[in-house]
User: Fold this.
Amino acid sequence: MELMFVLNRELGTKLVLVTHDRAIASRYARCITIEAGRVLETVIEL
Assistant:
């Protein structure tokens, strides 16, 4: 998991990860919460 974050940061790539683990999701600058196929919340941390 850490390697993906390092490569994302160093190479400036986009990384899309789908998870049910909020601890992992909290490492991202942008989180989109989806439930039953509907977007409930979008959080963008600057």
Summary: The chain has one domain: 2-44. The longest helix spans residues 2-11. The beta strands are 30-35, 38-44.
